[in-house]
Input
Amino acid sequence: MRRPPEGATRRFWRAGPAKYTAVLRTQLAHGLAFPADLALRSLAIVIFMWVFIHLWRATYAGAGQSRVQGLSLSDTLWYLVLAETIMLSKPRVSTEIARAVRDGSVAYQLARPFNWLGYQAAVALGDALARGGVTFVLGGLVVWLAVGPPPPLWGWPLAGLAVIVAWLIDFCMSALIGLLSFVVEDVTAFEWIYSKLILVLGGVLLPLDFLPDGWRQLVQALPFAHMIWAPARLFVSPDAGLFLRLFGGQLAWLMVLSLGLGAAYARAQKRLAVNGG
Amino acid sequence: MTTLRRIRVELSFLAALWKTNLLAALEYRASFISQVLGMLLNNAAFLAFWLLFFQRFPKVNGWGMRDMLGLYGMTATGFGLGVVLFGNALSLADIISQNGLDPYLSLPRPVLLHVLASGSRISGWGDILTGLLCMALLGPPDAAAWLRYGAAALVSMIVFISFLVLVASLTFWIGSASALSGSAINAILAFATYPMSIFDGSAKLILLTVIPAGFIGALPADFVRHYTGRGLAQLAAAALVFLALALIAFHRGLRHYESGGLATGMGG
Output
């Protein structure tokens, strides 16, 4: 009796997460192999945090309040350290996928014995962890010197977990944009729009708590907010109730986007045409 | 050749290069339009951030949304003009370190001018358009204000390009300044798009000397709002000083230039 062909999802679970953990570990080691180079590339956060320290000091002084929407000056700056870390460290998944589709290297990758999406996610997470760690340390040092120590340590694992889910949400959305290259040749315009949506609706430059009341609830429900605002807010206000609400929202968006990505990947595979050898 | 005639010749050469760059960009019309619109959208996102910010905090050290429109518009215009007219300034460090100056050295034109103007960034048109839109949004048309805007944008562009040339020229001595050049671009744009009034004395000094972001955004924008003879003199002096420093650094560095003789193309 012939065995029915194995689906991609089934292959993923049969191979077990060990294979993808190994890919992640390799990518992380690769990212950390040249720490000086990594630190130089992560210097942007030092510049941004220096500007933010001046901006928010002047803003809080002008507002004449020690807390705005429940956030102190220190909270706001530590929020921005994590928000910028997530943003600056997220890998350019869509660009890589679009390049692989355009130059045909996707054909070689698909033939390898792993689930292609699982492999891409492990590579992306490995890159993000390497870069994110260094970026956070550099940005954190600048802010620590300016406004004092970070939020309590016991909240860090909660925020760390939320950051990993945030990068996975970004992976799903970014990979969806990358897969568009099976339909349109150039996905740059979609990448730009996506990055600007994160910038404004994610809360990269401004904690979403500061938005006008009507907008706040709406924007906080979107996936962009669950990528940036949710982990950064958890970091500065660690609280079990808030964690359950925001982490639950993150998992819900991750599930919806993963299903969407799986469906888009299945369709993209049908459109794949490889010429030559 | 008299100096005046030489300037005329170089200007007509520049005009020919710019025309060629524009025609090349317009050859791919859809790509041109999408890049210009993309940059407009990019700038709109930053202005949306400031709009939301000033709704919560109406004034920061005397600054409001109108001031921010002026500042952002000026920085966008200076940056846009710079990357459209002298687009290779953004990648000059790479051009130097990868033997890219070779083809320019063998031609009878000023090397720096030639290499800078041989490339053009299409998205810069979106920045120029953003600047014009900000200026239009700021109030009723006033010929004098538009004249000041033109002069201030020219200064902003000269200081920006001169700064990039200065940083890229370090390549002649240190081998590769690509990462440094990237950080310098990030830094100058980040500082130029925030009000000077939020920075204290020592930070202001840095922003008018080491990283001259103040001469790209805040001071030219101030000059557009109110004319003062002192403001005009400051801008003119800044443009001349940074231009002179860039020319000296590049030409001194050029004496150290060594090439492996790899065949490289021109352009950006």
